[in-house]
């Protein structure tokens, strides 16, 4: 059992939004409903609308009395996400949405439709405090953590979209704006709501949920002790501490080896293979020797419980960082595989619509 940890990061600039239905436990919902003078079964009714029918407006919940709809709206359903704009690409199969929150903060989500699934990439913070220099969100800084309900409502909105299209949302990746494990408690609450069956959640399989991190080693161990089966994705980006101290500044606190040890702990506890995310950057981290070292370190630390997800960098406007050429990418993949570690290149969706995290929000600002 890992020791309890308290992680402290740069303070968000803004406060949290008003409490929403999805911020409360089932017991707290019943208490709030009865405080409104309503019978406790109304809490279950509302949950079935929100999680089962993807309705966020009590005025549409017609099996509730009109007076109850008004009081529940006032007390438990503050407006969370207001659409600013959406952009489509890939022949309409990819939709990037920009949302304005209750306090004016901006966040992004991306819905990607495939023949066999629909994946939503969601944000866990408005902005990010990790300061990775090649990331638009990291360079913008952290506005604030998202509430559990602001995370969950991204999923509800996408699930409603997919239902209207006659399909369903099947996969969730916490790879949007922010560092999920720096907003630990709310992210875990959101994961449980995403994966519990209705009326307590959306019923998406934990095995279809991926939580990404830049490598907060104590929080990775803490997540392992939650005994969930979500996939862990670690944004490593280089196998050596010297470069990683620059590319992923949190590496100054948690070294590559500490991160890989925590990842192994997670793999052993969850039974899931860990995904290593590696953004390939021209002349920075794409050398042959780094590919060889990456494969060796991963094979030693994780054995068969690892997979490398190579990401062609989606450069931000005006950035000095650029994607590696195709032949360099192919050689990097070959060398990692030669060390006995599976390695594939991520499907890059939406590059022409500023699909890299933070680009749409930066344009709006």
UniProtKB/TrEMBL annotation:
InterPro entries: Aldolase_TIM, Elp3/MiaA/NifB-like_rSAM, Methyltransferase_A, RNA_MTrfase_RlmN, rRNA_lsu_MTrfase_RlmN/Cfr, rSAM, rSAM_sf. Residues 1-20 are annotated as: Disordered. SUPFAM superfamilies: Radical SAM enzymes. GO terms for biological process: methylation. Binds 1 [4Fe-4S] cluster. The cluster is coordinated with 3 cysteines and an exchangeable S-adenosyl-L-methionine. Its cofactor is [4Fe-4S] cluster. Its EC number is 2.1.1.192. Pfam families: Radical_SAM. The active site is at 108 (proton acceptor), 357 (s-methylcysteine intermediate). It catalyses: adenosine(2503) in 23S rRNA + 2 reduced [2Fe-2S]-[ferredoxin] + 2 S-adenosyl-L-methionine = 2-methyladenosine(2503) in 23S rRNA + 5'-deoxyadenosine + L-methionine + 2 oxidized [2Fe-2S]-[ferredoxin] + S-adenosyl-L-homocysteine; adenosine(37) in tRNA + 2 reduced [2Fe-2S]-[ferredoxin] + 2 S-adenosyl-L-methionine = 2-methyladenosine(37) in tRNA + 5'-deoxyadenosine + L-methionine + 2 oxidized [2Fe-2S]-[ferredoxin] + S-adenosyl-L-homocysteine. S-adenosyl-L-methionine binds at residues 178-179, 212, 235-237, 314. [4Fe-4S] cluster binds at residues 128, 132, 135. Residues 114-352 form the Radical SAM core domain. The keyword Ion transport does not apply. GO terms for molecular function: methyltransferase activity. Coiled coil: none annotated. It is found in: Cytoplasm. The keyword Iron applies. Reaction proceeds by a ping-pong mechanism involving intermediate methylation of a conserved cysteine residue. Specifically methylates position 2 of adenine 2503 in 23S rRNA and position 2 of adenine 37 in tRNAs. HAMAP family: RNA_methyltr_RlmN (MF_01849). This is Probable dual-specificity RNA methyltransferase RlmN. It comes from Corynebacterium nasicanis.
